[in-house]
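Title: Comparing notes on inverse folding

I've been comparing how different people in this forum approach sequence design from structure. To keep things fair, I'm posting one structure and asking everyone to reply with a full sequence. Here's the target:
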């Protein structure tokens, strides 16, 4: 009877989360965690996962500690990669680039769903660029440049080309910048780099 009641509590908490009522879901998942004696291990595992995600959605101060607890307590969880992705997204907003590199380098990004994978490669590539890990940055951007249908294509080409530019691989950088001639996002930056490279190559 206790297990059924706890399962119902879990369902109610999940409804709150899916309804984007994260205060409600965080409180309810916290209640499940603190009253877990007769609840199955999988329910507790998922309760910790959604407790962490609720905190993240609310930008609560305990987000990072809840994340650390989840991946430490449940290192083989099927939710671990998703937890790492969402934490990286959270850290990207906070510009904590070193932490993002460490996190996203620890998992196989191809196991994420397509939309998450594109975002993860961009978060990793840009974070590597910001922390001067240029080879890993270029590898990450390449994964985005080689695909066509996503929102990060122009960003990947621009930052990959900029890295090539500062590494003095001017001809390769030029090709990248020229491919952005019609980019609305980089309309101000691209002509400068093309002119600069053409001048240097004379």
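Reply #1:
Here's my take.
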């Amino acid at each position: 009877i206790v297990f059924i009641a706890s399962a119902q509590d879990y369902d109610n908490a999940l409804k709150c989360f899916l309804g984007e009522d994260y205060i409600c879901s965080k409180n309810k998942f916290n209640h499940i965690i603190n009253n877990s004696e007769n609840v199955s291990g999988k329910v507790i595992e998922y309760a910790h996962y959604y407790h962490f995600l609720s905190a993240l959605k609310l930008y609560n101060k305990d987000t990072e500690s809840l994340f650390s607890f989840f991946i430490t307590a449940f290192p083989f969880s099927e939710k671990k990669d998703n937890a790492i992705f969402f934490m990286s997204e959270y850290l990207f907003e906070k510009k904590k680039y070193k932490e993002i590199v460490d996190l996203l380098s620890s998992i196989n990004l191809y196991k994420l769903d397509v939309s998450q994978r594109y975002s993860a490669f961009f978060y990793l590539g840009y974070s590597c660029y910001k922390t001067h890990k240029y080879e890993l940055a270029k590898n990450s951007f390449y994964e985005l440049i080689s695909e066509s249908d996503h929102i990060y294509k122009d960003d990947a080409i621009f930052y990959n080309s900029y890295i090539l530019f500062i590494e003095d691989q001017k001809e390769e950088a030029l090709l990248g910048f020229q491919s952005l001639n019609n980019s609305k996002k980089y309309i101000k930056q691209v002509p400068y780099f093309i002119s600069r490279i053409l001048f240097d190559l004379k």
